[in-house]
Every structure is written in C-alpha cells, then in structure tokens.
Amino acid sequence: MGAFFLSGPLWAQTVSSATVNNGTAVSTSALTTAVSPSSASIASPSALSAPKVQPVVASSAPVATGLGTPLSLDTKGPWVIGEVLFIRGGKFTNDYTLTELTHATKGSLYTEQDIQDDVKRIEATGQFSAVVPKLYEMPTPVPSQLSTIAVVGREVRLVYKLAEKNPGAGPASSAPKKPLAAKNLRVMPPAPLSGVVFTPTAYRGHDQDNSPGLGLDINADYIIGRLYGKNSFKNSPTKTNYLDQVGVWMLSADGKMQLQSETNIRPAVAFGTQGTLLFRDTSQPTASGAGSTNVTAQVSNNNGTQLLGDAYLVMTKKIYFARLSAGMMFGDWGDAVAQFSNFLSPTALTFYAQDPNQTVMSHTVPFVNAIFMATSNHPIELEAMQFNGAALHPMLINLKASHYLKTDFNLGFLKFSGGYDLLGTIAVRYNFWPR
Fold first, then answer.
1. φ/ψ of residue 343, rounded to 5
2. At a CB cut-off of 8 Å and minimum separation 6, what does 73 contact?
3. 3-class secondary structure, 323
4. Strands (E), 116-233
5. pLDDT tens digits along 356-386
6. Domain boundaries, the chain
7. Of 29, 119, 139, 46, nearest to 85 (Cα)?
8. Can the peptide bond before residue 78 be classed as cis, meaning omega within 30 degrees of 0?
9. How is 73-90 classified by DSSP, letter by letter?
C-alpha cells in the first residue's frame, strides 16, 4: 500500500506528478513540499508509493482532490493495487483496525467483487452508514508480468469514503472519540485459506497474497477417536462400534510456492511439500474375534513414531463465495491412514478382511477441497482424499466448521471396503508466512 504520514508539525510529500484543482495535470520530476497541516494551499494528499501503510491518527487536513484519474468499477477489473486510503469524517486516516478489514495490498490483483467484499466487511462493523469505494489511476506502471492481465496499464489508488453513523452535532462532535469506537472496529482475522485439515490450497496466507511467492503453514492435528462405526466383516465380534480412542498426533510443516496467480479465468497454481511427525498417545483399539476364538486384531508398532512426507501440486479457483481446489500428493504421507482405524491394521486385514500379506499403504493421494465463505471470517471447509493402491481402498472426508463451534473440533468420515468410521478430530492450522 501507499502511505501518507505526519512528521512533527509538517506534512511532507514527494510526488512524481501532481494535479491542480482545475484538473490540469502538471508533470514534475521530483517535487518536495512541506506545509502546515492547516495550510489552505494543499491541493493533493497524493501519492507517496511505499510498500506498507503505517498506522496514523486522522489528519486535521481537509481531504484534497488530487487523487488521480477516476476509474469506473463497472469494468470489473482486475486492477493492480498501488495504495489504499480511507477517508473518515472528511479526513484521511490509516487506522489499523480499518486496514485489517481489506485484503488489498500493494501489487496485488483486485477485482470489483474483491472491493465489494471489503465494503461488506467494513459495513459489518456497524460504525458507518455508508461505505463508498472509489478508484483512481496512479502514474506508476503495473509490473510487466501483470500488464496483460490488468484492465489498465497503471497501478490504482483504492479509496474508501466512510460516513459515520453517529457523527454528533455542534461542538460535541469535535470531542475525542472514546476508545470503545476503535474496539468495535476490531474484528477477528480471517481464517487461513492456505489449507483445510490435511490438504493444501494454492493460496498463501489468508488469501490476501494472490501472487507468486512462498508460503509456510504449521499444522497440528489430533485424531481423537471413533465416535461411531459399522462393519460387515465375518469375524468381527460386533458390527457396530462406539467411542473407541485412537490417539494419533500429527505435527506438520507445509511449505509451498505459488507458481501462478489467480485471475477471472485461470486458477492459482502451487506446488509444495509437507513433513509430518506422527506418534500415538495410546494403543490402537483392540477387537477380539467372534465366537470362541482368542485372536485379536490391532496395529503393530502401537506407540511408534513415524516421519512422513509428501510433495504435492494443487490448483485453486474462486467461484463466487467458494474456493475450490484439486491436487495430488506424492509420498508416504498416505500411509498414515492405517493408524486411523483398527480395521486397517495388518493383522485386521488378515483376520477380518481375510486378505493376508496386505498393508494399507498409499504413495499417491488425489484430493479435492472446498472452502465456502459463509462470512468473511468464518468459512465452512470440506476435503476428500482417496488413498490409491491401499488395501480396502480407504477414503477420508473431513468437515471443518470449527469456527461456528467456537472450538477446533471437526468431523471425519473414513470409508473402507467392509465398513466405515465416524472420527472426531482436532485440527489447528497456523499461517506462519506470509503474515
């Protein structure tokens, strides 16, 4: 984003071009002015270009007119963002609680739908009676790799004009705002959209970085146990199972490189790798055979530690309020599914499924996932994985709606030839980079 700032009693600006009040463009090579904030000669708030917006308090200077050439939102975009400004109560402000409500960053591609999403987030605070977005063309050319994508060849200044709901009247309106006003603007940061439970997306971070680059997530997953299950194995003592502890921990690092940014037509594309430490805090549930037999079926190496890894390729496309992804994992991460149910252990394959000398191992795992943005901060997430080549052909579906449950508890549905298990899981995804 671009930035403007106050330094002591002076407002310093450096611009490469300026626009006077009558609309005439004046070109300058390096114009630096220093004026009092209350000076009547200010004609433009314009256009420092800086990579970040530094939070400041509202300026006492009136809003000026030299923001650039106005652009219409009807073209739908995408545009390349140069900076984002907020006008509140007729004055510029860069309150950090407002910058958190927009996903626009300098150099990012932004569409008309993205702008409307920002408007909805700002309106949801309940502080403003109107939020009006405006676009202005800046003199800075867009990067060459985006020149064929953006609808204009220069970066744009995105300005949100905010009308207060209760601006007050008379001298009282000039009184300092109570801290409660800023507190009400504070919202929870959006949930990470870089992955669901086990599967990744092509996005980095919280979806605000739709551009090629690196991303890193830290994941912690805990398979609590089987809530309910049914099976049709001949030697199984019971065909229905309830509340069996599994106790599998999976600690992962997920690093990715986004190769291609998303546009209105093409999807975002990324490749990455995951490293996982798997261990158990309890033995896998033991199931005895039917009748008088004393044979039991449980996983070998009950409390053993495993290091698993995979590489993956994934594509993601935003369609209305949903982010849809499809990809493939390559590696031994697929072997982890054998730990999720006692019916998938090597002994169980021999005794229950009567399929000796088989193991549940998979080195190619195709997957799909969907993130439905019911609200900007509370998505509903769904993923499905097929473990190719594994005995009993297991498939795992995870539903993540933990933001509504106020906890990180999620549900998993593990289907295999001969039965299924409904699993309870805890999944935490921490977006380490980009912040």
1. -75, -5
2. 112, 115, 133, 135
3. strand
4. 128-141, 154-164, 213-231
5. 778 899 999 999 999 987 765 678 999 999 9
6. 11-185, 213-433
7. 46
8. yes
9. GGG---EEEEEEEEEETT
Q: Cα dist. 268→109, 198, 257 in Å?
A: 12, 19, 11
**DSSP class per residue in 149-200:** TSSSSEEEEEEEEEEES----GGGGGSPPPHHHHHHH--PPPPP-SBSSS-B
Band of residue 167 on the pLDDT scale cut at 50, 70, 90: low
Rounded (5°) CA angle 303-305-311: 140
Q: Does domain 11-185 have CATH number 3.30.420.40?
A: no
- Read off the tokens for 201: 């997306």
- Which residues share a beta bridge with 35? 11
Beta bridge partners of 271: 257, 313
Q: What is the pTM of this model?
A: 0.57
Cis peptide before 434 (omega within 30 of 0): yes
| The pLDDT of residue 406 is above 90 | no
Of 100, 96, 93, 67, nearest to 82 by C-alpha is 67
Token match 């072997």: residue?
Answer: 335
- State the residue for tokens 């202005």: 136
Which of 94-103, 326-335, 353-362, 426-435 has the lowest average pLDDT?
Answer: 94-103
Query: Which residues pair with residue 12 across a beta bridge?
Result: 34
Q: Of 251, 250, 246, 197, whose CA–CA distance to 225 is shortest?
A: 246
CA max distance for the chain:
97
Return d(Cα 296, Cα 123) in angstroms, integer. Answer: 60
